Amino acid sequence: MSNLTREGSFGAGFALGFLLGIIGLVIALAIDKSETQRGAIVGLITEIVIGVFIGCCVVISAGASLSAL
User: Fold this and answer.
1) What is the pLDDT of residues 16-48, one digit of tens each?
2) What predicted TM-score, i.e. pTM, was given to this entire model?
């Protein structure tokens, strides 16, 4: 078995990707630590999924309120 050590912080990368989006991902790529990059990718994907979910909820809610008129 090989002894692989992962550098960086997943949590910090997640915060970068989630709070700063693409800019956070670019910063994480510039830092060049594998766990930080992985966290930034997961954070960005999480931000996109939550954004799409909230957007769908807003559209459905607006459509329901317009049809009630």
Assistant:
1) 999 999 999 999 999 999 999 999 999 999 999
2) 0.84
C-alpha span between 6 and 4 (Å, rounded): 6
**Number of domains forming the structure of the chain:** 1
Helix (H), strand (E) at residue 46:
helix 34-67
Q: How far apart are CA 53 and CA 47, in angstroms?
A: 10
Q: Which residues form the domain of 55?
A: 10-67
- State whether residue 65 is helix, strand or coil: helix
- Residue with token string 């700063």: 20
Q: CA 20, 26, 27, 33: dihedral to nearest 10 degrees?
A: 120
CB 38 within 8 A of CB 17: no
Task: Kindly state whether residue 5 falls inside one of the protein's structural domains.
Answer: no
Q: Where does residue 36 rank: exposed (0-12), middle (13-18), buried (19+ CB within 10 A)?
A: buried
